[in-house]
Structure formats: structure tokens, C-alpha cells
């Protein structure tokens, strides 16, 4: 037997996914097909050829389903042909290979009609079967609110983004290329509205003190309603350099924002971030933080997504009780991610997203991390919300861990039993230890 054979028998806990997220579903609640998901990754190619202004027009027309505008853009630019070329160029990527592998794996399962509209309308049933196939008993899913059909199952556990709290004011377009920032800001505002609705509020309080009271009440509410952790995704929209601020300067910046001036928004955003984290610290619940790269279109400011910028958060003594997990391995800042986990006892890393974007690079990074970090520091995740991609990410992740362990064995670093124990830590036990209330037997 190979190490990979041994790893197939180890259940995996998916530390970070998006099962149940509305962006993975169409207007009728059916799961989108994975091919449409790949087309979203190909949009950057279009933007680079028709220019930022026409690109924005195209995305706006897509959202409005404006047939006349789309026809005009197609006649002018030939966008459908560009998308086909972009997909052809993407055929050589690990992403495309992973998607094909996910299709092949599910196609091979007798009686598993995962492509049909009926199957994709029942998200719970489809994912229950998918997760069973890859031996994944529990997932931590980053969604606005856990859908009703998933909420009564111990398999699906809710991680809530706190970013919406930071952006209570409409900020408009940034003027950058692409729509990375605008799309995430819109999602964050929808997240905030969901939290307001839960407490029976039509809009955010305009007083800074009242807004902070709302935040405290909201965090209590979501914990009482099943959140097992939280997430910060603000690397898409601003720098991760959250700076401790005084109440008075934050309140002054808030009041200027109420009046329509947002130049000093970082002052109140930073204060709000630490206020929310202090609330979370009272429950000692984990916080996932997106570090490193984002989606495949212009817009994200990568200089602000570096893991080392988070030292201003990790150095706060009052937050030591929060387990912070830096997600996606921090690519391309993988070394910085590791050094943060090495330096702080309550900081960890997961490599979600990487299993369907990298092969040899992921194996190399796992070797680096597993040789350098204690066995409790590295965590598996998928960062997927579609069944085809989920099975591919689990299969690729197991394969990468097995290859890394084989290399470690050949270098006389880990003996046989120790290698399997380390795999168990990475694939399930580290997540179960951090999220101890999951109730899944280790």
C-alpha cells in the first residue's frame, strides 16, 4: 500500500468552503454548473482586451440581463469569442484539470445524476452524496446565513463574515480596473443588511456609539444561532493593516462619513474591526482571515493582502484567545503565512483553494510548512461551493499531502506511523481541535 492508499481511509474536515452560498446558485436556487464557474475565472482575459470601461458596461449588462446592450457589445467586441479563447488558454491550468477530474469522478458513480436540474435543485441531498463519496463528514461553510436545508445537519457548520460591519456606508466605484472591490463591497453590504434584519433594524444606526452597541448585539445573536467561527475577507477591499485607534478619532471619522466624506474611513473601520474581535474573543471562537491572492480579474491590491500586515492584530494581548487561521496558504506570500503561524501560538494556516490551483507548488509548500511548523498548525480546506470542484479539491489535497509525506519519508524526516499521524492532524484533527464544539469524534 502507498501513503495515498492510507490517506483515503482518513476522513477530512473541510475547514473552509462555500456550500450554500447564493453566488453558486442561479435565480431558481439550483447549483450552477462548474463550467459557468470557470467562465468567471476567464473574465480577466476579456477585460484586458476590451478595456475597463467596456468591461464594466458588459458586467452591468449581464447583471441587468439587458439583451440589447449585450448584443451591441457582442457586435462591437466579439466577447463570446474572447471567452472561448480564454477558456482554451485555461485548458492547461490545474484548475481546468481539477474540474475535469471532478466531472470524471462523479460521472463514474453509478446512479449519481449530479448534472440534472432536479439533482442541482436539492443542494443538501447532492452535497450529502458528494461528501460521502470523498469521506468528508463535516464542512465549515462561509455563507451569509446557513440555508435552512443545511442548518439542521451537524455536517454543515456556519462561519460568518464580519466584513459587512466595517462598511456601513455606500462608497461607490473605486475607479480601479476590474470589479473585484465593488463586487465584494456589495456582498459585504448585503451581509450587513442581513445582520440588521435579524435584529429588526431597517438601517444602520447613524450614531457611532449606537452602531457599536448594534455590533455587540449582532455578534451575540449569530453565536446564539449557530456560528462556530468568523471570517475576514477585507483583503479584497482594503489593506489588512488594521491599526488600533482611539475612540474619539474613530468617532470623528464616522461623523464625517455620515456627512458624506469618506477620506478617513480607515479610522472607524479599524476601530470597528478591533471592537468586533474583542466580542469574538469572549467566546474564544476562531477567525479565518483571507490573505494573499484573489480572483482572476484586476482590482485587488495585493500589497495590502500580505500576512505580515496582521501583526498589528496578533500583537494585541486581549485577542490572544482567538485562534486565527490564515486561509488559502497566503499565495504568493506562503512563507509569510508560515512565519506568522510559527511566531504566534494562536495563529494557524490552511491551504484551501490551493488544491485546485496548484500541484507541484502545493506539494513544495506542504513540505516547507510541515518541516518547519509543529504538527498542529496546518489545516486542510477546499474553498469550493460546487460538487465537482469539491471532490476534485479533496482528491487533489489528499494527493498533495501524500506526496509531501513521501518526500519527508525519503529524507528520513518522518517514520511510517508518524507520517500517517501527521496526515491525520492536517486532514481532520487540527480543525477539530480548533473548532472543539463541532462534536465530531477525532
TrEMBL record:
Keywords: Hydrolase. The keyword Hydrolase applies. This is Amidohydrolase. Residues 274-392 form the Amidohydrolase-related domain. PANTHER family: AMIDOHYDROLASE 2 FAMILY PROTEIN, NODULIN 6. Pfam families: Amidohydro_2. GO terms for molecular function: hydrolase activity. It comes from Micromonospora echinospora (Micromonospora purpurea).
